[in-house]
Design goal:
- It is a single chain.
- The chain contains three helices and seven strands.
- The longest helix has 16 residues.
- The protein folds into two domains: about 30 residues, no CATH class; about 150 residues, Sandwich (Jelly Rolls), CATH 2.60.120.1690.
- The termini are far apart.
- Strand 2 and strand 3 form a beta hairpin.
- The chain has about 180 residues and is α+β, with helices and mostly antiparallel strands.
């Protein structure tokens, strides 16, 4: 008789993990926690405008705006290092671009490795299948990730596909400047 009660308690605990006392269960497990005190050094592009995004995961936020108001958001975020989650991340990013069907395996060159400076980064680059910005312009995500210790860092550009394309060389220069003070 004790086993069904124990099973119920365990299932309820899993469903409520990550919930605040005032929230409803989400069924989501909270993201892994990055290493305490994890820091990173890098040099942002001079024309990237810094802004405060007020997020516990965002380490830094920048934007680039062209003369007609198109925007690319640049974010540097950190999560706890989790191996084997690339497909989940890829499907999340693809969904924000309007892809309806999640991939069942991480193939098709959507997440590749590339060297920039002293490190190897995982690179994701994809453009929306349909115009998403004002119904006329395509959106694009270009992202690099690296794991250092127990922290996974994400350097992501998202926004107007044409403007973002002009920022890729500048973004790659920023990646070359990445340094981890603990090394």
């Amino acid at each position: 008789m004790m086993r069904p009660l124990l099973l119920t308690v365990v299932v309820a605990a899993l469903l409520c993990s990550g919930c605040s006392p005032d929230s409803k269960p989400t069924g989501r497990v909270p993201p892994p926690v990055p290493e305490v005190g994890a820091t990173i050094d890098y040099t942002p592009a001079p024309d990237w405008k810094a802004y405060d995004a007020k997020s516990s995961m965002r380490h830094a936020s920048y934007e680039v705006k062209n003369e007609v108001g198109h925007i690319v958001d640049i974010s540097i975020t950190m999560l706890g290092a989790v191996d084997g989650k690339d497909l989940a991340y890829i499907n999340l990013w693809r969904a924000t671009l309007g892809f309806n069907e999640p991939l069942q395996e991480a193939g098709d060159g959507l997440f590749v490795e590339a060297s920039h400076g002293n490190y190897r980064f995982g690179i994701f680059d994809q453009t929306s299948p349909n115009p998403l910005i004002d119904g006329e312009r395509y959106a694009r995500i270009f992202l690099a990730s690296i794991t250092q210790g127990k922290t996974r860092w994400f350097f992501k550009m998202a926004g107007d596909a044409e403007l973002l394309a002009t920022q890729i060389p500048v973004f790659q220069e920023m990646l070359k400047s990445v340094r981890f003070p603990s090394e």
